[in-house]
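thought: fold this chain, then report.
action: predict
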Amino acid sequence: MIQRRTVLKTGAALTGAIGSAGLLVPAMADTAPAQAADLDPTTIPQFEQAMPLPKVLQPSSVSSTTSYYRITMKEADAQILPGRLTRVRTFNGSFPGPLIKAVSGRRVVVQQTNQLSVPTSVHLHGAHVPESSDGAPMDLVAAGGGTKTYTYPNSQPHANMWFHDHAHHYESETVYRGLTGFYLLTDTVEQKLNLPTGAYDVPIALSDARFDDSGQLVYAMGDRMRRVLLANGKPWPYFQVAARKYRLRLYNTSNMRFYTLKLSDGSAMQQIGSDGGLLEKPVEVTSVPLSPGERADLVVDFSRYPAGTRLILENTAARYPDDPAEQIGKVLQFRVGAPVADSSTVPATLRTLPALGTATVNRSFELSMDESGASADSFINGKAYDMDRVDTEVEYGATEIWTVRNTNTRVPHNFHMHLVQFRVLERGGKPVTSGPESGLKDTVSLMPGETVKLQATFTGYEGTYVYHCHMFDHAAMGMMANFRVTKTPSARR
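observation:
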C-alpha cells in the first residue's frame, strides 16, 4: 500500500511564502536543484509553432451498443520546444492527449494497459459511471504492464469531459508530465443546434511547465517556477483561423495554475457551456476564469477581423510577484485568414436544464491547509484523506445541498465531486441564477475565505466515490474525502 506519510516526506515542508496567485509552495519547489540548469523561458520563441489538434482515437471494434478502445499508457518523446525532444507520459504516445468522441446512450469500453514505471488510475472527469470504472485514487493499474477495463455507460447528457491519472500521490507528477486526454460526449440536444462543428470545433488543453536546459520537464510539488504556458502541448503557439465563427473548448489541465482568459482587443466572446455541457442561454463575456480541472465552451466570431489580424488570448489571472507578464500573460495567438462560408449560429436558447428538485439534506465542508509552513497536510473538515474511511454517507436518490468554504486566508482551492454534476446555488452568499456558473458543473473555484453552495442529486450508481480539491498537490497532501452512496439505510453511519 502507498504510505501517505512516506510520500509527503519527499514533498518537503511547506513554506509560508505565497505569491499573489495564492498558491502555497513547498519549500523545495523553487530552490531544489534540477538534473540540469533551468531553461530560460525567454529563449523560447513565442507564436512560431502551430498549435496541434488532439488525435481522434478510433475504436478497435464496435458492436450495436458499444465502442471498444485499447489504450496504452507509456512514455514517449514529444517535440514541445523547437528542435528538442522532451520525455512525456502519454496515452498511446499522444502529446497533447488523444480525443475520444462518444454519444449519450452508447457505451464506451476502454482497456487501459500501463507500461509506465508508476501505478496509475484513470479517472474520466465529469462522468457518471459505476464505482468500478471511476478511477478511484487507490484503484490502481499496476506499473509495467498492468491492465484494467473501464466501462463508461454514457447515460448522461452531453458534456466536455477529460480523462487523467488519479493514482493517489502519483497523479500530480504524472498529469504534469502529460497523462491526460479529451472525452467529448454529445447527444441529440447538442447535435440539433447549428453550432460550429468539424474543423471549427477545437478542444484546447491549457497547462504550464518548467524545463531544464536539456529540454526535459522539471517537476516539484507546488512549483511556482512553471513559467512556460502550453496550449495543446506547445509553448505560446499560434492557431490559424478563418474569418468565421469557431467553437473553442478550453480545458484547464494545469496542476495548480488559475487562468483568467481574454482576447487582447478586449472584445466579447459568447460562452455557451462549462463542465457539464451547454448553458441554458449563451452569455456574453469579456473574460473567462478557469481553476484547475474546469472547462469553458466559447464561440468566437473571427469574421469581425480583417485578414492578417493577429489576436492574442491573454491570461490576466493574478500572478506570483516574480512571474514575468511577458510569459504568463500570453497563452496563444490567433492568426485570422480569409473569410469562408459560415452557416453556423448561436441560438438564444441552447438547452433546458433539469429542475433542481427539493433538497432534503444540508451539509457543510471546510477546506484548509497549514499556511504557516509547519506541516504538509491538507484537510477537509479537519481530516486528511484516508482511503479506508467513509466521510459522508449519502442515501441513493437524495438531493442534497453542500456548502463548501475555503477557510484559508491566502491560499485558493477548488472543489470537484465524482459521480455527479451539480448546480451552483450561491457564491459568496449571492444567488447564481445566470451566467457561466449557472449550468451543470463538477468543479468550482474557492478563493481565500470564499463559500459556495452546491446542489446535487445522487442517483444512477451505488458505491464509494471521492470529492477533493482539484489542485492536484492539495489533493495529494490530503484534501480529499470519500462519500458512499447506498440504498441500504443500515449501511450508513
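thought: worth noting. The first helix runs from residue 4 to 10.
final: C-alpha cells above.
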